[in-house]
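Sample intake sheet
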Amino acid sequence: MKLVNSTINYIEFKAFDLEKTKAFYSSCFGWKFTDYGPTYTAFSESGLEGGFETSEETVVNGALIVLYHENLIHIQQKIIEAGGKVVREIFSFPGGRRFHFTDPSGNELAVWSDK
């Protein structure tokens, strides 16, 4: 799959119980899962790739939309200049790096890069 800057690339959900969540989506929709440690599982064969992260928080906004951009510093600066706010600084994870931001309406999204 070719990665394209500024496109929706991944969707991430919170989950209280990963095993129950995987069983539900596998049984109902045929999704496949790959575990990345005890607190994260990625899904595929759903039309769009994504994942579930274990969380004890009450789920308010159940999905985190993740955009792709090859240059995190550049796109982060553009977001700030346009009135967005960084709510989680750039951090590394298996496969890349990302940061979270809110748009002027308060919607939280993330941007990741494999670079």
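Comment: The radius of gyration is 15 Å. The helical segments are 18-29, 72-81.
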